[in-house]
Amino acid sequence: MRSTLISTITARCLQLAAVSTLTMLAACGASSSTDAVGGSGSSTTLGTRAEPAAPAKTITGNAGATWSDYDPATLYPGTKTLPLQYITMRDGVKLAAYVTVPADADGNAIDTPLPVVLVQTSYNGAAGSAVPAIGGADSYIVEHGYVSVVVDVRGTGQSEGEWEAFGEDEQADYAEVVDWVTQQSFNDGRIGVYGVSYLGITAIITAAQGHPAVKAAFPIVPIGDGYRDIVFTGGQVNPTFIPLWLGLVSVLGLTNPTILTDPATGLPATLDHLLSAVANFQVPTILNALTGDPDTAYDGDFWKVRSPLENDAKITVPTFIVGGLHDLFQRSEPISYERIKHNAPAKLLIGPWTHVEAAVGSGLPADGVPPLNHIELRWFDQYVKGMKVGADTMPNVTQYVTGLEHYVTASDWPHPDVHAQRLYMHGDKSLSEDQPATDEAANTVLQLPIEGLCSISTSQWTAGLLGYIPLPCFQNSNTAETLSVKYETPAMADDYYLNGPIEADIWMSTTASDASLSVRVDDVDESGTAKSLTNGIQTASLRMVDASRSRLLDGQMIQPWHPYTQASVQAVGSGNAVLVPVEIFATSALIAKGHKLRVAVGASDLPQGVPPVPTLLQSLAGALTIYSDAAHPSSVVLPVVPASALQ
């Protein structure tokens, strides 16, 4: 297997395969508006609900950048938390605000106006004093000359109102909070927005609103597309993280100290939170998802509002994005960078992390990459305070490369040297560039919705919490893939470097009425141990692709954009061979010389997603057949970078 560019002859074959694939997608009900994304040899971005894909523009500057630490002396010896304050919104709802300012050696608050680092949380700012990642002041940042302002979003923590998770009312609050901050005596009119997870999402949405006081953003593991990233990946509802997350917000919203200290304020707020959880949002949302309610189970306005990628291109302030290779929002973190990079200074750091590991930058410093709060301070010192501290000279893109086990820098994402390579799945379960023959055998697996129960997915989709249990199945995917069809390359003759999203084009049929597909991409070492690199899931009846919004690389579709609307549903039917394009989330990994690349195709990945009940009932007790013949050439399109780029 070559790790260098494929030959001209092979390239022509791949271009023809791309045209063939697009034609087949159209025949399967895909959008016919393919002219919007260019022809053979073109590369594009990924589109959004509002915008089609656009020609890719690669950044090549700053290519030789290297990391250095930034840890200046503190400006103040301590911090002081001010009494709880309330911010009144346009409709009278009051939001709780926790303000921490620098203090002198005697513990007295500094009264000099300073820049503010604003955090907006759903996890109760009072709890943030114990767990800063969910909404607490970072003393390191405050002692370096910033005021920390943490605000409970409406319907959470000690704030009034009902919570609707990034709904229109909540997003309108963000701008009013920024206005309030600028009117306070502790603020000099400059604000940096920051946060982890939910807090990072509020930061990136606030940055997109364009308030002139907001000078920079530092979101850690922010979501990009509420539907596609996690809640309904592949059209399947997440059964692990989402209930845990909604429950966490509910519990923390009911843990309100003002019930005792200020009952007149605390009791009504807590009752509002309880009503929201039981009757209006959390419980109804889960039930609607599971029962297949059309307004929830299909993409639409509800999810558009809750998808920052729709507005990320409006961000004009410097933005540093942190993500993880096994994060909850693995799919969109590099795409968020891609949406911002041409409109504002932007940087991307992706570690080998699950969600909770990314929150603290686990393992840093490493390979020269400093701790996250050192990077944050440098970012805000330059772009909020206006100091010249070299934030612009930091590498544009830094990614951990699994298999190499080191951080590697590049001038851009997608990688400037990436090219598409299509490998075909064969009846003998091999994986190669050779196109299938006419008479190659198909392979069949049972449709059981329990696969992946003990796998790296179990760790990833519980935000990494269950990953702390030392189970062998989290490190070796062989058990999780027992019921899957496993296609493997020969042992690599050279190192083979993957960097970017992956598409699996699976020809399948089922003995049931519908089916789910799970596709894992693994690195298999000489001993046969399979390390899962990334994966994707897809409901067959939601296979329609909008080619005008899909990502092309070298003229081949490498990241399909599925509409996931009720109108896009296409019947599968028993015994019918259909093509199902599966989006596999971006990774960065080195398949070392002597190792094999495996693509495992199965019928489910339970920790990541399960179809809503109506679809699940149509998929049970079936057998899934994967085709590998010339008329039905199942394949995978890989983003290959010359291994020499790692040097």
From TrEMBL:
Q: Which Pfam families match?
A: Peptidase_S15 (PF02129), PepX_C (PF08530)
Official protein name in the record: CocE/NonD family hydrolase
What is the species of this protein? Solimonas terrae
Give residue ranges for domain Xaa-Pro dipeptidyl-peptidase C-terminal.
377-637
Query: Where is region (Disordered) located?
Result: 31-57
Alphabetical keyword list: Hydrolase, Signal
**Where does the signal peptide begin and end?**
1-26
Record-level Gene Ontology MF annotations: carboxylic ester hydrolase activity; dipeptidyl-peptidase activity
